[in-house]
Amino acid sequence: MKNEPNLINNPIGFFDSGVGGLSVLKEAVKLLPNENFIYFGDSKNAPYGTKTVDEVKKLTFNAVDFLLSKEVKAIVIACNTATSAAIEDLRTTYKNIPIIGIEPALKPAVELKKNGKIIIMATPMTLSEAKFNNLMNSYKNEADIEPLPCAGLVELIENGLIEGAEVNSYLKNKLKPYLKSSISSIVLGCTHYPFIKKELSKILDKNTEIIDGSLGTAKQLKRQLSNMNLLNNQATLGKIEIINSLNYKHIIDLSFKLLNS
Ligand code: DGL
Fold it and tell me: Averaged over 133-150, what is the pLDDT?
């Protein structure tokens, strides 16, 4: 009871292995402009997607503990990899705070009911974990789904490479086996990937949809805050704080550049 009157002004904590979760924060800020946000990116330990599940779980718990020390009122795990490795354990451990995760947005891709393959680009860990495989199995009779692990792509984006020759040739190489057949949509199952969307669209047919889960996750955050009467109703714009485990100016500058892109 004691904290309740002030809790609505507390920040919402965001977490990702690096700068990727800013694609989700961007949508959340648009939807909830009056909220205060703290974003923690663990670029020092990125990429997560090629680590073991136990390593990612440990890093995710450390990050959540850090955000809790900042008195956040809700937490968004804005990383598909960390969500698949740790969301259940996090919710069991921290029962009193809403924890929102993200998973590849397969449902909207299937609902398009277009002909051709649905390609899911994500990290090797996301695609090998049970969470994704259960999701994929639930749609396997309705659509032709092709998981495409993209090791190495997060590193390019962490280095600020979101367009140009290197990103283009990475994507062309990855998608080469599919470009001659029909692709109905590409699901970006890693929160870093929306930042390379422009380069991706250059090599795809105009009719191929590119889908990501950032808006859906931001809406889910709003719903949960509203259900718990935790929405901030201040009239002024909220504050956005970005913290990164690398603690270099260039990574904070890159973060704001991506957030405002
Ligand atoms: N943004 C993370 C995700 O959504 C990237 C994971 C990584 O660091 O490999 O999966």
Answer: 95
Radius of gyration of the chain (CA): 18
Ligand 1 centroid to Cα of residue 52, in Å, is: 13
How far is ligand 1, taken at its centre, from the CA of residue 3, in Å? 34
- Tell me the whole-structure pTM to 2 decimals: 0.95
Residue 229 neighbours by CB distance under 10 Å: 9
Asked if pLDDT for residue 168 goes beyond 50, the answer is yes
Indicate the DSSP class of residue 84. Answer: H
Domains and their CATH numbers in the chain: 5-102+214-259 (3.40.50.1860), 106-212 (3.40.50.1860)
Active site residue 150: no
Ligand 1 site residues (CB inside 6 A) read 16-18, 20, 46-49, 79-81, 123, 126, 154, 190-192
Please tell me the predicted confidence (pLDDT) of residue 233. Answer: 86
